[in-house]
Amino acid sequence: DVKVTQSSRYLVKRTGEKVFLECVQDMDHENMFWYRQDPGLGLRLIYFSYDVKMKEKGDIPEGYSVSREKKERFSLILESASTNQTSMYLCASSEGQGQVYGYTFGSGTRLTVV
Amino acid sequence: EDKVVQSPLSLVVHEGDTVTLNCSYEVTNFRSLLWYKQEKKAPTFLFMLTSSGIEKKSGRLSSILDKKELSSILNITATQTGDSAIYLCAVEASGAQKLVFGQGTRLTINP
User: Fold this and answer.
1) How does the average pLDDT of chain B come out, rounded?
2) What residues have CB less than 8 Å from B72, skipping those under 6 apart?
C-alpha cells in the first residue's frame, strides 16, 4: 500500500522557534508538495519539488523554506514560527515528469504556534 | 492566475437526501479536474475528469465535467452519515505539474 508519512500528527511550538515538518514517501515519486489548509481558504501551495535538491515557490512561500536532499523526503521549515502559521499542513506526492496524475496525501500535521 | 471556486462552502442535509456540489475553474490549458474526499485525515481520491472522460460514477457518487461552462458537479445520492466530509475540487493545467485547489465544501449528513 503506497504511503506518504508525515512525522507528527499534532505539534505545538512557541513563537520564534524554528520548526521542521518532515514528509516521507515510499512510492519513488518525483514530485512532492507542501500545502497548508485553512477553513474557507482551502489548500494553498507553499512549495513544491520536481526532483532532488530542486524546489519551486508556490503561492504562499513567505516565512517558509524547504529541503529535499533525498528523493523520498521533503522537509518544510518554518524559520521563525509565528501565530499566523497556525494551520493544518499537508504533504503530497505524485509521479510523472511533466505530468500530474493526482496526488497521494499524508495525514497532515496540525501545527499550533503559541 | 489559475483559480478554482467551490460552492456551497458548507451544506447540512438529512440522511437519504441527494446533494450536488459545484466547482468552477479558470485555468490556462486545462488538463484535468479532480475530486477528493477528506474526513479526519488525508484527502482520498474520488474522480479524475478530462476531455476524454467527462463523466464518472462510483456507487452513489457521480461527477460530470462541463468544459463549455468550465465547471463540474459532484452528486451524491441517498446520502449516509459516512458521507460527512470536506469535498475538495482541484484542477491541473498542462505542463503545470501541480494542482490548484478550491476552498472545499464541508458536507454534514444528519441522521
Assistant:
1) 92
2) B22, B23, B24, B25, B33, B35, B49, B63, B64, B65, B66, B89
Please give the Cα distance from A77 to A20 (Å, whole number): 5
Q: In terms of CA atoms, which chain B residue is nearest residue A93? A: B98
The string of pLDDT tens digits covering residues B42-67 is 899 899 998 877 899 999 999 999 98
Whole-angstrom Cα distance, residue A82 to residue A76? 15
Query: 10 Å Cβ neighbour count for B10?
Result: 13
- How many Å separate Cα A79 from the centre of its chain? 14
C-alpha–C-alpha distance, residues A14 and A85, integer Å: 11
CB-nearest partner of A108 from B42, B90, B104: B42
* Cβ contact B12:B108 at 8 Å: yes
CA distance B44 to A21: 21
Q: B83 in helix, strand or coil?
A: helix
Residue showing cell 452528486? B75
More confidently predicted of B11 and A101: B11
Closest CA to A30 of A97, A99, A105: A97
On whether any CB of chain A is under 8 Å from the CB of B53, the answer is: no
Whole-number Å distance between alpha carbons of A96 and A90:
20
